[in-house]
Amino acid sequence: MAVNDRDSGAPGGPQVLDIVLTGELVTIVGRGRFQVTARPGEVVGELLVRLGKDCHPWFATLPAGRGEDPQLGAVMVLLDGEQVSFPDGLRRPVGPGPLYLIPPIPGG
Q1: What contacts 24+ positions apart, CB below 8 Å, involve 93-97?
Q2: What's the confidence (pLDDT) of residue 8?
Q3: 24-31, long-range: CB within 8 Å, 24+ apart, which pairs?
Q4: Which residues of 17-41 are buried (b: 16+ CB within 10 A; e: fewer)?
Q5: How far is Cα of residue 79 from the mean position of the Cα atoms in its chain?
Q6: Residue-level pLDDT, tens digit, the chain, 108 residues
Q7: Strands 73-74 and 68-69, how do they pair?
């Protein structure tokens, strides 16, 4: 997976997507922000599975768990400022981003 690439600018070509993790997810994955190159036509579910293979296995737990982390609970996924619902939102095409992953907030 290409990380920190720049957008080619070509229609339908690769686009850079900011991935932002918050709270306990930063500790689990080991970083809070990075960039990936989204593949043309890629949907949210495919991206999460690919991140699980290429970056950290935690990402693949979301599609498999329907948005639930086995230990943390429901993780909010926001793409382009809109919440991604599970399982239907997994078929949503990846937009220009950013993609936020937010764990449950204790007491929230």
Answers
A1: 93/41, 93/42, 93/43, 93/44, 94/15, 94/17, 94/38, 94/42, 94/43, 94/44, 94/47, 96/15, 96/17, 97/16, 97/17, 97/18, 97/19
A2: 40
A3: 24/72, 24/103, 25/58, 25/75, 25/101, 25/102, 25/103, 28/56, 28/58, 29/55, 29/56, 29/58, 29/59, 30/56
A4: bebbbebebeebbeeeebbbbbbee
A5: 8
A6: 444 434 444 455 678 999 999 999 999 999 999 999 999 999 999 999 999 999 999 999 988 888 888 888 999 999 999 999 998 999 999 988 899 999 998 765
A7: antiparallel
Tokens representing 9 are 């600018």
Which residue has 């943390």 as its token pair? 72
